Amino acid sequence: ENSRIALPIGSNLDRFIMKNQEAFPFASGELSQLIRDLAYAGKVVNREINRAGLADITGAYGAENVQGEAQQNLDVAANIRFTRALQKGGEVAAIISEENEDIIDLKTPNAKYIIAMDPLDGSSNIDVNVSVGTIFSIYRRVSPVGSPVTMEDVLQPGTAQVAAGYILYGSSTMFVYTTGKGVNGFTYEPSLGEYLLSHQDMKMPKDGTIYSVNEGGSKSFPQSVTDYIDKCKDRGYSARYIGSLVADFHRNLLKGGIYIYPSTAKAPNGKLRLMYECNCLAMIAEQAGGLATDGKQRIMEIQPTSLHQRVPFFVGSKNMVAEASEG
Ligand code: AHG
Ligand code: MN
Ligand code: MN
Ligand code: MN
Description:
Its main location: cytoplasm. The protein contains 8 helices and 15 strands. By secondary structure, the chain is an alpha+beta fold. The strands form 3 sheets. Strands 4-3-5-6-7-8-9-10 form an 8-stranded mixed beta sheet, sandwiched between helices. A 5-stranded mixed beta sheet has the order 12-11-13-15-14, with helices on both faces. Strands 1-2 form a two-stranded antiparallel ribbon. Strand 3 (92-97) and strand 4 form a beta hairpin. It is globular.
């Protein structure tokens, strides 16, 4: 019956954030507010995604982003929703986004935080009613509060993240985040408009039997990746590839598995972006006992050099990523 799962008071996201505030690196309440702002924007985007097929907001927007991709209407809408929520919230000095070529300076020089975000991940899946997501990383600015935001503020390595998370708009919508003390997952209950704690202290299995890679590019994979995928096949592993990074990552987080986006002829540095896709999921993976590399090096230790930099990405169960990265 419906009430079988008892949800004690304190299990909704707002209360969880409040209760855990003292665990934050800088317990001033501003980071808590910022996470709530992101969660709120996620509700708005969730509503738009749910109605996308009815409300004429699917399809291409008619412009190309800095990535050279055709923007979808929902890429643009989600970018606006998150940017606006963060602007109104007042805790963020600047945003970098997949959909904006340059830094978005929110002209709130007294704010302490920087956001890197992929407002809508998997946007090619919207029109076919497949799961999509939002990915975010939170940093503290390094230049003095009150001064203009600098490139150094936004180009920090993943190890400097104070929090990271994603929203998965799937068969259920989930908000998953970490502040560096483990990973917790909340499932959105639409009739209450609340995210409820459903996945406490998530841990990724050390090993798994799922590999996720777009094998369409396999003719130009590095030899080491081809060798690893052959091993997966020899062992009878399952191939699963949704084509929305967040959804592929989330499944592997729960079930164990590896996600690889290697360098290919089409994407010589891989396709995924260090600042607002890889670092965030790397932090969550590590916090859950997993691992993330670019095939050689730990993702979070890469010193970024540009906003939209791409890197090969290997993420998931610790032993699988370690084995795939050796070659
Ligand atoms: P985005 O929609 O934010 O541009 O990200 C797309 C990414 C990611 O979600 C997905 O895993 C990957 O692109 C799929 O790429 P391929 O179609 O090349 O496999
Ligand atoms: Mn895109
Ligand atoms: Mn993406
Ligand atoms: Mn995107």
